[in-house]
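User: Predict the structure for this protein chain, please.
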Amino acid sequence: MAMINKDISNKLFHSLVRRANAATCSTFPPAPQPVASTNDGDKIFELEDTKSLFASVPTGKLMHAAAMLNVTAVEPVVDLSLWMMNSRLMEVGLVRSAVMGTIKHTAYNHFVAGSDTVETGQTVRRLWDSGLRGMLDYGLEHAIDNESCDKATQQLIKTAEYTQSLPPSSVSFVVVKVTAICPVYLLRRVSDLLRWEYRNSSFKLPWKQQTLPIFSENSPFYHTLQQPAPLTTEEEHDLELAHQRLQIICDKSFEGNVPVVIDAEDTSIQPAIDYMTYWASVKYNELQRPMIFGTIQAYLKDAGDRMSLTKKAADKMGLPVGFKLVRGAYMSSERKLAHSLGVESPIHNTINDTHDCFNGCATFMLGEVSNRPGGLILATHNLDSGKLVARKAREYGITKDSEKLEFASLYGMAEAMTFGLRNAGFGVSKYLPYGPIDQIMPYLLRRAEENKGLLSSSNLDRQLMMKELKRRMKAYFGQGMTVSENQFLNQKLTP
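Assistant: Here is the predicted structure, written as structure tokens:
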């Protein structure tokens, strides 16, 4: 391999250190102005111009991001990390400290917005300065009892209240996981009862409040093979407590004019989550702008039908509805369960079927909200879907100011698409999980397991980041590099 001479090497080293240190304490530079619309329908945003694309990202942060994406793209590395975190070695104090310290300065800093509201608020401000918004997600889920639900609720209330101290509009949504405010066992009980009621019209649920459609004819019902026992008095009381927790969180969030988006989970408990989501929608979505957004997972075969039925019922009631559209995160476990029961999987048979469902749902909702109230959060890392929806939004005249469409992606991922959509003038948010490292480790482990394929397919981000780093280094050192030095940079900076 060709070598750079000693002077160049020292300059490079000290320059990168200075830039990395500066990036840890400074805000992002101002975002570039949106690019004017083009007549070329396929040219939604410019990705080739990396200088404009990453203009708001300091070099130190860009280096860290490129390094993390390159490491996490290697599946054996992710597999080894998952094995280590789930092994008994983590019971050894010294090993645990070393592992957690490494994670803190690598994956945690890249994929997590902060350990508390103060650190997360700093992230939100940096994003806001760069033309992006934040979706605040307190990283606690799967509560087991009322005590843990109450603790999570208090933190979610604190999250909602904290938005009022941040720049107006810098927070697009407060994220709520119903699994954090209602015991999971109760969500399963409620889901079973809702499924049984749907299939047996004479079966009544005395505790059920007004909501919107939860199922379609092709929804999965194999979780409930026999009539479930009614909720006990204690369970009904606990369900009412869950309603109260959600109501308090919503009230606090709405005080800052920040909508709430409720996450989806696996199909065994999703009916109960939809029930609570649509109960809150009926209660709060009275104005032109929906304040409660539910989540539709497009990898489910019934996703399109459920979205359509819910929207139609809401229209009859005069309610604007909002959906966050995602592809889904439980493909492996859903298929394994269906296979073990000898039934058809609720997941689309091919990835192309999922893409078609996702794009179809997005197009449907854009058409629905183009001339009437409602909203769509397009949560995707898929560039083709991003381009499709951006084109449709322009066709329908849906602008950033209308607040009817928000693109969203996970913090630390899909950066090229994020900045490209921002530069094209669309509203873009980053999904910001936060919490102490010990508490948020389950989140990181699940995301690592669920997104292994996604991380390994982040080739576009890696290539564009490396291209921009190479451009900055050349600009810094000038154009007087030798052929051998150029070859060195090409080898080092090409993913």
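The beta strands are 133-138, 171-176, 260-262, 292-297, 322-326, 375-379, 405-410, 428-434.
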